[in-house]
Amino acid sequence: MYRQQRLAEGRATQLRNKCGEGLEIPGKDYVQEVTKAGEGLWVILHLYKQGTPLSSLRHRLFSGLARKFPDVKFIKAISTTCTPNYPDRNLPTVFVHVEGAIKAQFTGPLVFGDMNLTIDELEWKLSESGPIKTDLEENPEKPVTDAWSRGATPCP
Fold first, then answer.
1. Higher-confidence residue: 149 or 4?
2. Domain count, the chain
């Protein structure tokens, strides 16, 4: 009994450690790598278009998070290989899956902010949907304030 438990734990550890790589998948592997990823395994899928600066930034940030959270499967795919005719206006898109179900979806360029997005901000946002347990104590994103909210008066 104990031996079987230890073997199962070892297999689970191997699977988790494989996840921390930030894999690129072709569309034909979507079902296997995302929908059938494994029991209790969170999958974060980043759909992107090659050659866009925002996608490049997100790749770097997701790679950092993949190393920090090796028990979560971070993968990326070119949008049109997974979904033909996927609209560019929806990119980048991030899907959060567990056990074949979509638990969260972040669509479009402004959901996570612009090119000033930090790894801590991305970590916080993803932690709100469940796949990662952050050690951050508060939201690192600074609230946006404008002149009206500070009580400025309109120009004559």
1. 4
2. 1
